[in-house]
Each structure stands twice: as structure tokens, then as C-alpha cells.
Amino acid sequence: MTVKEESIINVCTGEVGETQGMKEIKGYDDKLKSARVKMDEVKKENKLLKLSLSQKMENYQSLKMHIHELVQQINQSKGSSLMASSNDDESNLVSLTLGRFSGDSCKREDKKVQENVELDGLELGLDSKFHLNDSSQASKINPSPENSFDHEKSPTPKTERSEDDEVLEQNPLKKPRVSVRAVCDTQTMNDGCQWRKYGQKIAKGNPCPRAYYRCTVSPSCPVRKQVQRCVDDMSILITTYEGTHNHPLSASATTMASATTAAATMLKCGSSTSTPNHHGFNFSASSNNNLKNSYFPRASVATSLSHPTVILDLTIPNYQYSSQYNKSYLSSFATSTNSFIERCSNALQLARESKFYSNKNCIETSYPYNVHGNTQEEEIVMSRDKIAAATKAMTHDPTFQSALAAAITSFVGNVNDHQERKSGPNNSNIKLDDKKSTFELSFSHPAAHANSYLNKFPQSSLDSQHQSLTSSYPGHPFALSAASKSRFMSTLADEGEQIKL
DNA sequence: CGAGTTTGACCCGCGC
DNA sequence: GCGCGGGTCAAACTCG
Asked: Locate the WRKY domain: which residues (predicted)?
């Protein structure tokens, strides 16, 4: 029997004074009223949340439909493109140049129309590929002169704006570039691709002319490169690549293309974080983006007129590398970097799922209990546990570790051991110890060569007998660099999560 | 004659 | 607004 019921009985039986019983009933009535008010508030809040949820669902559905329509339009456009290419009827060509004007005087109008088309979400381009790692894909719903049919039939008019220009207009951060420094006697480096020179200019501060090339393997390939001799050392040829090939590459061209694409992808990974700088990928936490003299002697980041640029240095002073040697390095760089990025992306997804679970609590903070019957505090503890578990799973995942090791050993390189480079980073492994805040980098090449690692990781100790190197990472440059090398860590850091590696 | 190169003109973003 | 400099264009030229 509850106190309230007892009081009522007492009142009815006259066992208690009438005044006292009435007071108690009145008190309970007040409590009941306040509870009802609270219940009403909760109901209202619940309605608002339901409304918000339904709106979000509607937005989601409309977006889904929009994407579906876009895909259909793309497919139709592709079909039209195929039909047009198989038909010489000029009317077909005209019908495929929607939204475009010819002539110099129409330049502004051309731009406006393109912008309008973009705003309307219409797809007038004829070739829309969805490459995750291609910055040019940012314009996948834009009308693309590069990809339009008549572009392939005739040279690009001067007034037309390229796909790249569209990207630049939308994004203040210009397209990432990959600059390769290599000792080369010839006019250009043989990278396996076919190039056509379209310009030459003497840039300020360098008497050597800078040559401009574009890829001619495919007429619509957006890739360009600049070739210039280094002002400090004329034997060094600096080749700067921009863009991603949209066509199959020969085996000889794949090495360089993979390396440059991987490097550019890393830049994009970094620039996708909320870090307000425009330098793209943060290799180090310092303001100095050039790591040439720090811990990654062959890979560094620089900017040129807001162009984020990765510099792959294939010219280590005092060491002569053959072209095959560099090729090996580039292959290793591309493979390990892509693996690293993929692994970090997967880890990030895992973290986000945990994060979503955590965020769900925020929505439920108005309620003392959630649908599972757990208190808010219990849920918070549970979500923390889940994040911790996810973090642990990631940092202890052998594949994640090997990917990290691959990336690190690739970046760090080894200035002595050719064999080790040829075998790639697969021979290295990293063990992380959260409790001791250390990492152990083990390797399977002669310990004598491991000294190169030691030089690059101060505060490290080398166990030559076990061919391993141990370093503490809090505040260590390696830790900063490695952490900033992934979307996963930088994103979590932006969100205030403490992830120890 | 076609493909590629050269080179002066032009465009455009950026800093002052 | 103006000048500078990087980047691109396209006509003229060269070469096989």
C-alpha cells in the first residue's frame, strides 16, 4: 500500500485529522499536476523531435531521389554520347552543346549559364565518372566542357572554361599538385605518358624556362605537367603533375601516375578536415610545411599560390639512385599510401559509428531514461566504452598497424638499404602499447641499417638483437606527423576525441 | 601533310 | 584600379 493510498484510507476512516489528510492529498495533487506538466512538455518535445526526424527523412528521401535522377541522367547522357559518336549527323552534335555559347562576347553569359545549370542540379556533361579520389569529380554534376562530346571533336575554344576551372571557382583551394624532383639529363623525365607541349614561360626567380605539357593519351585527359630545371642545381629536373588521368595507362606510366595520385589523395584527405589552413595534408603540426629537413626526407608539403603541393624528392644528396631504384620507391610510396588511406578511412568509419551512438545520447538528454531503460549516465558510460573499444580495435588491428607501418616506412624510407626498399614496407611492423605510450617498430633487415631509423626518431632506442626500435610518442614529432597523416585522427582530434596511438 | 613545338598575345587571379 | 606574374591560347613554324 502506498503512502498516498494509506492517507486516503485514513481520511475516509477518520483515523487521522481531516486537515492533515486534506493537506497530504493536496500535496500529491500538486505533484501530480507538475508531473503532468512535465509529461506534456516531454510530449511536446517528442512531437518536435518526431517532426524534425520526419523532415530529415523527407530531406533524405528527396536527396536520394535527386541522386537517383542524376544517375539516370548520366546514364541517358552516356547513351546519347554513344549514339552521337556512332552517328555523324551534325544535329546530334548541336543537341549536345546545351548551355554553352560560342564567341568571345558570350564568355560571361557562358559562365552564368553554367552556374545556373549547376544550381539547378542538371547534368549536361556527357561523361560522369564517380572517382572518389579525383578532385575533378567535385564537378560531377557540372556541365563539363572537358567531357562534352564536341570538345573531343574540336579543340577547346579559348572562351570555354575547363572542368578544372569550374572546380577552382567552387573551391578556393586549388587542385593539389605533386612535384617530383629527380636528377635528369634529358629535357623531360620519361614517365611513360604521352605529352604535348603547349607553352613555355620564364618564371620569376628562375632563368630556366618552365615548359607546360598536357597529356595526349586521351583528348579529354585533364592531366598537365610543368617541367623546370631547379635553379639551385641544374641537373635536377622538377616535374609538377596536376590532375588525374581519366584513361587506362600503360604499365610504364602507371608507376608515376599511382605515386602522384596517392600523394594528391593524401592532400585531399588532409584538406577534408576542418583545419582552416589551405595547405592540404598536414604532415607535421608545425607551421613549417616543408619537412624535407625533418622526418620525411623524400616527401614534403609545400604551397604555391594556394596550390597544395606534395614534393617527392628522388634526389638525396650524396646518394645516387638509379631510375629503377626511384621506380621502386614510387611504387612503394603509392601502394603503402593507398593502403594507409584506405585503412584509416575504414577506421574512421568505425569511429563515426561509435560517435553516432554517442551523439544519439545528446538527442535523448531530455529524457531521464532511454528506450533501453538505461539512465543517461549509464548510456554515456556505455558509449564511452564503445568508443574506447572501437579505438582499441583500430589501434590493435593488425591490418591497421601494418598499414600504418607501411606508410611510415615508406615515408621514412631508408637511405642505405636498397634491398629493404625493394622489399618494401611489408617487412616492417608496428606494435603499439597504450599503457607504456610507446610504439615498437620491428624490421627484418640487418640491424646496422636500422640506425637510419634511429636517426629519424629521436627519443628512440634501438634493439639491434631483436631488430626493433622503440620510441615513446607523446610529444614526439613522429607521433604528430603520423597522427596528422590520416583523416581518422585529424577528424577525431577536431571533434575533441583523445585517441592515443 | 599531320603532328608537335615555339612564341607572342592574352586572360585572370592576386597583392598593393 | 593597376601592375605583376602564372597559365593558356593559337598562329606560325619545324620536322619527319
From this structure: 184-250
- The pLDDT assigned to A417 comes to 34
Query: CA distances (Å), A29 to each of A11, A20, A25, A36, A376, in order?
Result: 15, 14, 6, 10, 28
Q: Which residue is nearest to nucleotide C9 (CA to C1')?
A: A158
Backbone dihedral region for residue A304 (phi beyond 0: left; psi -120 to 50: alpha; all else: beta)? beta
The answer to whether A163 and A146 have CB atoms below 8 angstroms apart is: yes
B1 C1' – A482 CA distance, angstroms?
57
A255 has a pLDDT exceeding 70 = yes
pLDDT score at A121: 30
Q: Which nucleotides of C are covered by protein (CB under 7 A)?
A: 4-10
Residue A483: closest CA among A311, A295, A310: A295
- Provide the CA A158 to C1' B10 distance, Å, integer: 10
> CA neighbours within 13 Å on the CB side: how many for A130?
6
Closest nucleotide to the alpha carbon of A158, via C1':
C9
**Which nucleotides in chain B lie less than 7 Å from some protein C-beta?**
4-9, 11-14
Q: Are strands A224-229 and A195-202 parallel, antiparallel or unpaired?
A: unpaired
Provide, rounded to the nearest whole percent, the portion of chain A with pLDDT above 90: 0
Q: Nearest residue (Cα to C1') for B12? A: A165
Q: Which of residues 212-271 of A touch strand C (CB under 7 A)?
A: 212, 224, 226
Own/partner long-range contacts of A422-425 (Cβ < 8 Å, ≥24 apart): A422/A328, A424/A332, A424/A335, A424/A336, A425/A332, A425/A336
Asked whether the CA dihedral A258, A259, A264, A269 is positive or negative, the reply is positive
Q: Is the pTM of this model over 0.85?
A: no
**Is the Cβ–Cβ distance between A385 and A338 less than 8 Å?**
no
Q: How far apart are CA A348 and CA A490, in angstroms?
A: 10
